Amino acid sequence: RRGEAHFDSAEHWSLNGKGRNLFVVLAHEIGHTLGLPHSSFKNALMSPYYKKLNKDYVLNFDDVLAIQNLYGAPPSGNLVQLPGKQFAFFQDWSPEPHEDSGMKPSYCHSIFDAITWDLKKTLYIFKGRHFWMVSLDGKISPPQTLQKRWKKLPSYIEAAVVSGLDGKFYFFKGGRCWRYKDSILEEGFPQKCSMNGLPRRPDTALYFQPLGHLVIFKGSKYYVVNEESLTVEPYYPRSLHDWKGVPANSHSVLTHPDGAIYFFKGHQYWIFDQKKLKVTTSGKWAEDLSWIGCKNDVT
């Protein structure tokens, strides 16, 4: 049954290094109970292969990033657990994730924060403190930190979108928004955009070509936004029912270069057909969408 872990007598369980370490296996199974999939990092707690961990083992970056993507980050620093000890503590810790060639990028193993294409058709995928760039021919950049590219931008953004008018990057988190021309933060930003009627903690954002506007999604509503003033246009928000078949609370959305609009929620995606004004296809993005960079890798 869900939420349960079974330990049978076929294994020799121990806490002192002889036999299978009960603490390590239990911590791994609790990770699954909390919603974590397996990790491709060999030294991660959520690796599918049993390993012996000493008492000073620190959770792998991928473990921490995956759980924070599901439940959020602690208010100060990162929570680092030490298997074998009965406590957890906070420390300033932000190592660069290491990704070997031939291994899936870490965004493939859980849920990314946001995704968007720029006007040069480079795909940007955001997760935690990092982002990846994916070219049209499928080349994936190493993970880069957000603040090295966009100064003053916080981690764990909630929505990102590139304007189809001028190529500027817009980021949203909480009630604030940031606007960058290339990597330069524009004067007057960040702004408290919620003061202009934009929703706090938006689900996702899109540049919608037929309207020539930014569209922000929040729950069962969507908002059409004037880019110049960053205010909500008259007669909005409106019901998400206008986007037939699109699920509420999608965490990401983008327009593919072929014109199709992709909505993402959890491990699923939905394609919204702009001509038919409804969802026509759905599936699992990591398995079906090769342009994201996860499909052809070995699990």
UniProtKB/TrEMBL annotation:
Keywords (A to Z) from UniProt: Calcium, Disulfide bond, Hydrolase, Metal-binding, Metalloprotease, Protease, Repeat, Signal, Zinc, Zymogen
SMART domains: HX
Domain called Peptidase M10 metallopeptidase: residue spans: 2-72
Hemopexin repeats mapped onto the chain: 105-153, 154-191, 199-247
GO cellular component assignments: extracellular matrix; extracellular space
GO molecular function: metalloendopeptidase activity; zinc ion binding
Keyword Metal-binding: yes
Positions that bind Ca(2+) 5: 115, 160, 205, 253
Any one GO BP annotation for this protein: collagen catabolic process
Disulfide links within the chain: 108-294
InterPro entries: Hemopexin-like_dom, Hemopexin-like_dom_sf, Hemopexin-like_repeat, Hemopexin_CS, MetalloPept_cat_dom_sf, Pept_M10_metallopeptidase, Pept_M10A
Cofactor: Ca(2+); Zn(2+)
Protein name: Matrix metalloproteinase-28
Positions of Zn(2+) 1 binding: 6
Residues annotated to bind Zn(2+) 2: 28, 32, 38, 46
Cofactor notes: Can bind about 5 Ca(2+) ions per subunit. Binds 2 Zn(2+) ions per subunit.
Catalytic residues as annotated in Swiss-Prot or TrEMBL: 29
Sites where the protein binds Ca(2+) 4: 113
Positions contributing to Ca(2+) 3 binding: 8, 11
Native source organism of the sequence: Xenopus laevis
